[in-house]
Design goal:
It is a single chain. The chain is mainly α. The protein is built from 5 helices and 2 strands, in the order αααββαα. α4 runs antiparallel to α5. The longest helix is centred in the first third of the chain and has 25 residues.
């Protein structure tokens, strides 16, 4: 293996590791109030919403709230499967199958 490639791999490891480890090391020594902990509990939901909303609502860069938007249509049974089953696996499989079926139909 070339020395440059190894140096790049090690550099990427360090650059990836430091931003993950530094907050963990600093925050593990601090007492965090319950209000901040409650606020932080919303971060995963906010990030997931920010990632999903453009994929579900936009088609070719334009807002698409019609029946030709298969991803938005597939989100409905996926949401219901997740809500009632509380299973990530079943939710993902439902979404994937719904997208495949809708793409075959349209």
């Amino acid at each position: 293996m070339d020395g440059k490639v190894l140096a790049v791999i090690i550099g990427m490891m360090v650059v990836t590791y430091i931003p993950r480890m530094l907050p963990l090391a600093v925050l593990s020594r601090m007492n965090i109030s319950q209000g901040v902990m409650n606020w932080l509990s919303y971060v995963p939901v906010a990030v997931l919403s920010a990632l999903l909303a453009p994929e579900l609502l936009l088609k070719n860069g334009q807002l698409s709230l019609n029946l030709s938007n298969t991803y938005l249509l597939a989100a409905i049974p996926s949401f219901l499967a997740g809500y009632f089953s509380k299973s990530i696996f079943l939710t993902v499989v439902t979404g994937m199958l719904t997208v495949v079926l809708l793409n075959q139909a349209f």
